[in-house]
Write a structure and sequence with these properties.
Radius of gyration: 25 Å
Number of helices: 2
Number of domains: 2
Distance between the termini: 46 Å
Low-confidence stretches: 285-315, 320-366
Length: about 375
């Protein structure tokens, strides 16, 4: 209990308590509870197959006490393969796959984050996590409200009608099935991912529309969808996108509001091509053979706050739900969207799985 100890639990579900001093705790296999002792530097060692373990240890996490932080050592594991998952105020680390886990209760509150995470290739701390990595926050089949942390987060709603709030940082939001409200956080580059069956979702996010910050626009990624099959519908000042048929939709409120152009800061990323607001503005029609009201031709009136010019052919379908203006020219919406160069890098067309837990902010695509 007093002094420097080495505790090895071996097999079974163990409780190891180091007490005072510098202790080394090895739970072994089984689901273990490890307590090195508060306010002293301790070392926790893990290997593949260690089970689902919990560490209870407090420390002073200040600049002048960095040398007193506890070490959590994952032998034979690489940082690039690890997952850092936030569950409430707890941190869960999966260094060897989903079967093994280390939980740090209350990590996101004061005095519970004094840890160094040591892998074979490198070590990180809370400062690195805040700056460089994204946490996974997952919902379930219920209606969840999930809020991100201070940095980059991956928010997964699952089933149900969810509300996802990314906050600051470059976040990835995937509402899953159900009718979700998604807000990645204004004026940060966020990524919204959709698949067939995602439901009727709403995205609230502002960004910069100036040329200088064009690469900071938010990405709406429609996995498995072709731009040629998508419908872009104007409803008042809102833009509604149907990428997978009439059952699924993504609404961007106030997208066409001329007094708030920051509502347009989106790249629309499909499997074949990507488009932006500028592409809509340059092209008068997005070609539709049959509108929802049964008319073959739809009157477009100031679709992008000014007449959409240029005869470049587009695939994809653009319908306006504006009231008809008798003086407006009836547009033949039978163009094709074939000639576009993608608005953003092609690497976004092969997205890493949402389950990947960490994304360096310096990486090319999140």
């Amino acid at each position: 209990e007093y002094g420097d100890d080495i505790l090895d639990g071996g097999e079974g579900n163990d409780i190891l308590e180091g007490g005072e001093g510098y202790d080394i705790l090895i739970g072994g296999t089984g689901n273990d509870i490890l307590k090195g002792g508060d306010w002293h530097k301790d070392r926790y060692e893990f290997e593949a197959g260690h089970g689902q373990d919990v560490i209870n240890d407090k420390g002073r996490d200040y600049e002048f006490t960095k040398h007193e932080r506890n070490d959590v050592v994952f032998k034979g594991a690489k940082l690039a393969d690890a997952k850092f998952i936030r569950s409430g105020t707890d941190l869960v680390i999966q260094a060897y796959g989903s079967i093994d886990s280390v939980t740090l209760p209350d990590y996101f509150n004061n005095n519970s984050s004094a840890f160094n995470f040591i892998f074979d290739d490198q070590a990180i701390t809370l400062e690195n996590i805040k700056k460089d990595y994204a946490f996974i926050l997952s919902g379930d089949e219920k209606d969840n409200i999930i809020s991100g942390w201070q940095g980059n987060d991956i928010l997964i709603g699952g089933a149900g009608d969810d509300v996802l709030k990314g906050g600051s940082g470059n976040d990835i939001l995937n509402g899953g099935v159900g009718n979700d409200i998604l807000n990645g956080g204004d004026f940060d580059k966020d990524r919204y991912e959709f698949e067939a069956g995602h439901g009727q979702d709403v995205v609230n996010d502002l960004g910069y529309m100036d040329k200088k910050n064009k690469d900071q626009r938010n990405d709406l990624v429609f996995k498995g969808a072709s731009l040629a099959d998508a419908e872009f519908i104007r409803s008042g000042n809102d833009l509604v996108i149907y990428a997978y048929g009439s059952a699924d939709s993504v609404t961007l409120p106030d997208y066409f509001n001329t007094k708030n152009k920051n509502s347009r800061a989106f790249n629309f990323v499909f499997e074949d091509k990507s488009v932006t607001y500028e592409d809509m503005k340059k092209n008068r029609s997005f070609g539709v053979t049959k509108a929802k009201n049964g008319n073959d031709f739809i009157n477009l009136r100031n679709i992008a706050s000014s007449d959409l010019a240029d005869n470049t052919q587009l695939k994809g379908k653009f319908i306006s739900n504006h009231s008809n203006d008798p003086s407006a020219q009836i547009q033949n919406l039978l163009s094709a969207m074939a000639g576009f160069t993608p608005a953003i890098d092609d690497r976004l067309n092969s997205v890493e799985p949402i389950q990947q837990s960490m994304h360096l902010t310096s990486a090319p695509a999140y």
